[in-house]
Structure formats: structure tokens, C-alpha cells
Design goal:
The protein has six helices and five strands. It is an alpha+beta fold and about 180 residues long. It has one domain. The strands form two sheets. A three-stranded antiparallel beta sheet has the order 4-3-5. Helix 2 packs antiparallel against helix 3 and helix 3 packs antiparallel against helix 4.
């Protein structure tokens, strides 16, 4: 019994240390990326159809709000994205997803619907002509209770919108959408 207690205590200390170490790394990573990398990277991406630039920028604002676990900002970003989509004459399920996110009662619902939105956005941007830059399709295998979830980013660095600071770096780049 004494060895068991020692083992449990040792394992608890290791888990606490690992969790604390991970969260401080995530915060440092998030802060440095937000201030240094995002703005210049976003400006280097452009589409032949200029209206899609606004759609992409609005999508990134929504993704970033979910990464930061900011419910109200995600609602506002979803509303802005829906306006950009309407200006581009993009309708259907992609627009319905933005409404669902904007009207959601909690961030869990927003994140769940973000999967559908991202899948539609990936399809939209693959069919579009990218004039400059590269868009990275990223994937978290743990999102949506293990079903996985994809999203778009302007850089290879993973910032997970499905878990935010809980698992900021969970995911991988699975595909590139490049200019032609």
C-alpha cells in the first residue's frame, strides 16, 4: 500500500508538471504568433476574385476567436463572415453555418459548427484561384469527440480552434492550397 501511494503521488506530480509546462508554452506561442506573424502572412494571400479576400480574412477572424476561446468575438466574426459571403454571392450550407455560429448559445456549439463551415470553406477555396500565397489545411484528429476536424490557416504553425489553450498545438498540416 505504501508503494502504491508513492507511485500515485509521483504520477500526480509528473502530470501537474507536464500540464503546467504545456500551458505556459501555449500562451507564449500564441502571443508571439499573434503580434508578429499573422498580419504580414494574411496580407500575402490574395485571390483572383478580390471579394474572396474579405471572405478569407473574415474566416481567419472567426478561427482566431475560437482559438482564443472568445465566444462573443466568434459571434461577431461569424456575422462579418456571413456578410462577406453574401457580398460574394456564396450561399447554401456555408452561409447557414455562419448563422448557426452567430446564434450559438455557447462556444462548444460554435466549435462543432465550425467543422461544417471549414469543410465548406476548404471546398470553396480549392475551387477558387489563389493569386499569391499558400493556405494550409490543418487537421485535429481529436476534435468532435474523435471524429476530427479541419480548418484553414495562413501559416504552418498549429493553433487549434477546437480546443484553444487546452490543446493549442494539437493537429497537423494535411494539405496546401497554393497559388497557380
Amino acid at each position: 500500500m505504501t508503494n502504491y501511494k508513492k507511485y500515485v503521488l509521483f504520477a500526480s506530480v509528473l502530470i501537474l508538471f507536464a500540464c503546467n509546462n504545456t500551458s505556459s508554452t501555449s500562451i507564449e506561442t500564441k502571443d508571439s504568433t499573434t503580434t508578429k506573424a499573422e498580419k504580414p502572412v494574411n496580407q500575402s494571400i490574395s485571390f483572383k476574385d478580390e471579394k474572396l479576400n474579405d471572405v478569407y480574412i473574415s474566416y481567419l477572424a472567426l478561427k482566431d476567436a475560437l482559438v482564443a476561446t472568445k465566444f462573443d468575438e466568434a459571434k461577431s466574426a461569424a456575422e462579418a463572415l456571413s456578410k462577406s459571403l453574401i457580398n460574394t454571392n456564396v450561399m447554401g450550407s456555408i452561409l447557414a453555418s455562419t448563422y448557426t455560429i452567430a446564434k450559438a448559445k455557447d462556444i462548444a456549439t460554435q466549435r462543432k459548427e465550425f467543422t461544417n463551415l471549414s469543410n465548406d470553406m476548404i471546398t470553396l477555396f480549392k475551387k477558387s484561384t489563389l493569386s499569391s500565397g499558400t493556405i494550409f489545411v490543418q487537421h485535429c484528429p481529436m476534435a468532435n469527440e474523435g471524429e476530427g476536424g479541419d480548418w484553414l490557416a495562413s501559416e504552418k504553425k498549429i493553433q487549434n480552434p477546437y480546443y484553444g489553450s487546452e490543446m493549442m498545438e494539437c493537429g497537423a498540416v494535411i494539405e496546401d492550397i497554393k497559388s497557380k
